[in-house]
Amino acid sequence: MGSTGKYFKYSRTFRAFLSTTVRRHNITPKMNEDLCYLSLLSKVQDLFITSISRSKIRELNPKDVAIIREVYDSENAHEAFGDELERALEAGCEIIIIEPSRLGDETARWISVGNCLHKTAALSGIATIVTGLVWPDKPFTYTPLGIVSFFCTGIYDISWQFDPCCQYQVNKKTDILAKLPVYSNLTSSSPVVLIRKSDFRRKLLHTCITLASTLFCVWKLYIVYNK
Question: How far apart are CA 57 and CA 93, in angstroms?
C-alpha cells in the first residue's frame, strides 16, 4: 500500500474514532465550537495515535521480530544470550524481545547512556548560547557548557553511533507488547522490548546545536579578549 493509500486508511480510522467519541461523550452541535474541539482533541488524539501504532504492528512480518529466549541449557547460557542479541542487532530486526532479565537490564542501561549523551550535548549547547547572551562578558559561565556539549557530541559521533544499539529504543508501552503476534509464545512476564528507530534526526539535532554553540563561544571569546 502506497503513502496515499495509508493516508486514506488512517483518515477513515480517524473519522471512525471521531464519530464514536461524539456519540459516547454526548458532544452535540449545539455545544460551543471551542469546547467541542477541545473535547474531541483530548478524547481522540491518543486513540488515533495508538491505532496507527497497532496497525503497523499487525502488518509486521514475524521474521522482523527476534526473541532472546531465557533457556539455561548450558553453563555459558549468559554468553549465548549476548551472542544471540548481537546477531539480532546486526541483522536490524524491527523488534527485539529480551527475556533474560539480566541481559535486558544491561541493554536498557547501555541504550540510556547514548540517550544521555544526546540530551546532554543538546541541552548544554542551548545553555551555552543562552548564558552567553545573558552574561556576554563572563566567559566562565558559558565556556564550560560549550566544552561539555562538544565533548558529548564527539563521544556520540565518534563512538556511540557505530554501536548497533544506537538504532534501538526501549519500548515502555505495555499494550504494544500484547499486540505482537508472538506474545503468546513468551515465557517472561516482563521482557525488555527494543524497537528499531533511526538516530539520524538526533545526530543532526545535537550536531547542529553543538556546532552553533562552539562557534558562539569562539566568537564571544574573541570579542572579550580583543577589547
Answer: 13
